[in-house]
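Exercise: predict the fold of this chain.
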Amino acid sequence: MEQIVQIFKALGDETRLKILIILSRRRICAKGIAKHLDISEAAVSQHIKVLKEAGIIVGEKVGYYVHYDLQEPMLLEIVKFIEQMNNDYTMSNCKFGIHMPDECRASCKANKNKCCQRNGN
C-alpha cells in the first residue's frame, strides 16, 4: 500500500502529469521535456526524481543524455488498484486492510442524517 500512496503523491502534481503524457507518446530526455513544457531543466529534474522514486518512470543513458520512459507495469498496478476499489462492494472484506462495518449504525450512533451509505444506494 505504501508504494501506491507514493505513486498517488507523485501523480498529484500537474507538471508531473504533463511529463507522463509526454512520455506516453515518446522516449525523451529532460532537455526535451523542458522545451515541451517551457520550464527549466532543473525543474524537470526535480519532477523526474519524484517520478523515478515512485517507480513510474525509468531512465536509460543514450550517449550524453538519459532518455525517460514509462514503467508500464507500475501504471498497470495503479489501474488494478482503482479497479479493485471500484469492484470491492463488500467493504467489510476489503483487501486494503481497512475495516468498514456493514451498518453505519455500528460506527455512527447519531445516524439521523444517514451519514454513510453503501455505494450504489
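Check your answer against the key: Helices lie at 2-11, 14-25, 30-37, 41-53, 72-87.
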